[in-house]
Each structure stands twice: as C-alpha cells, then as structure tokens.
TrEMBL record:
Record-linked InterPro entries: Macro_dom, Macro_dom-like
Superkingdom classification of source: Bacteria
UniProt domain Macro: residue ranges: 1-171
Database matches in Pfam families: Macro (PF01661)
Protein name: O-acetyl-ADP-ribose deacetylase (Regulator of RNase III)
Naturally occurring in which organism (per UniProt): Taibaiella chishuiensis
C-alpha cells in the first residue's frame, strides 16, 4: 500500500473511491460534503436518500457507499465523523472507526485506490493534530493493508497539509 499526501480538492480525484465527511442524515451539508454533493449532482443525493429510506441514515463512526454521480471517482463512501466535545465522549475511537469502516467497505467492493479528507476537522472541530495522528495510525494498522494500492490523504487547508507532512515523515 502506498500512502500519498495531496493538497487540494477531493472532488477532482479520479480514484476508485473518495470518502465524504458526511452527517448522519446523509442529505448533504457544508464543507467537503457540500462540495461533493454539488459536483456529483442528483444521482448522489438520490442514492443517499435510498439508503436513508432503508436504514435511516448513518450513525457516527459508520460508513455507507454510493455511486459518485458526475464525479471522476467511481464511488463515494460516506462516513460520519464525531463532533469534538472535549475528548471524553469516545471521539478518538469514533474517528478511528470512520477510517476503519470506510476501508472495510472499500475492501468488500474491490476498491484499490481511495482518498480521505480530514474527517471531523472542519465544522466538527476535532483537533487537527490528533485527528491526523489517528487517521495515519488507523490506515497503517488496517489489515489486510496490501488489499489497497493507493491510499490518499487529501488536505484542503495548509495547517492539515503540514501536519500530515510532518507525521508521515516521522517513520
Ligand atoms: N476537498 C477536500 N477537503 C475539503 C474540501 C474539499 N473540497 N472542502 C473542505 N475540506 P468539514 P467535518 C476539508 O467541515 O468537520 C458538513 O456540513 C476541510 O478543510 O467538511 O467532518 C457535513 O454535512 C476540513 O479539513 O467536515 C457535516 O454536517 C475537512 O474537509 C459536517 O460538515 C473536514 O471538514 C461534518 O464536519
């Protein structure tokens, strides 16, 4: 597995799957979720509504997969990160579960290349450095990691990008 770091917009990536930092309604929102829904168009929203009708949305830490509509990626994996509430509400484990469950879904689907945004570090206020450390460790610990050719961390803001650069270079 190659771990890659990119600075930019996840909606431009032609990977097998991009991960969306969604909310439990699955109906879209701001941040990266808004950008993904805007660019993917109606097919994505309809796929999300179909999942909602079957299983009433997506719980924090879980993930669901849909078509990617008009995006260059083939699939969107929607995961719901925890809202940071000070760190005593299981936020760290819930964030790790987002990465783990997204990879498990991808594995089931035969996905080889996948890109993650910095889940929970925007509107949900998870501390960026801690979130980056959890993201990297969870990806490195995933078993079987050889199932994936390429895992991309895509950072939209400079602060996340430089945190990832530092942490990825530490080993
Ligand atoms: N490409 C990649 N990363 C992006 C992009 C983009 N186009 N746009 C923003 N980011 P956020 P959260 C980064 O707020 O904290 C939504 O309303 C951004 O810089 O999108 O998990 C959902 O519906 C930040 O580092 O997600 C939920 O209600 C990261 O994406 C709620 O926000 C995550 O920021 C989820 O909050």
């Amino acid at each position: 597995m190659t771990i890659e770091l990119i600075k930019g917009d996840i909606t431009t990536l032609a990977v097998d799957a991009i991960v969306n930092a969604a909310n439990s309604s699955l109906l879209g929102g701001g941040g990266v979720d808004g950008a993904i829904h805007r660019k993917a168009g109606k097919a994505l929203l309809e796929a999300c509504i179909a999942i909602r009708n079957k299983q009433s949305g997506c719980a924090t830490g879980n993930a669901v997969i849909t078509t990617a509509g008009e995006l260059p990626a083939k699939y969107v994996i929607h995961t719901v990160g925890p809202v940071w509430q000070g760190g005593q509400k299981g936020e760290e484990e819930l964030l790790a579960r987002c990465y783990r469950n997204s990879l498990a879904l991808a594995l089931d689907q035969g996905i080889k290349t996948i890109a993650f945004p910095n889940i929970s570090t925007g509107i949900y206020h998870f501390p960026k450095k801690l979130a980056a450390a959890i993201a990297i460790q969870t990806i490195r610990d995933f078993n079987p990691r050889d199932a994936f050719e390429r895992v991309v961390f895509i950072c939209f803001d400079e602060e996340n990008y430089s945190l990832y650069q530092t942490l990825l270079n530490q080993e």
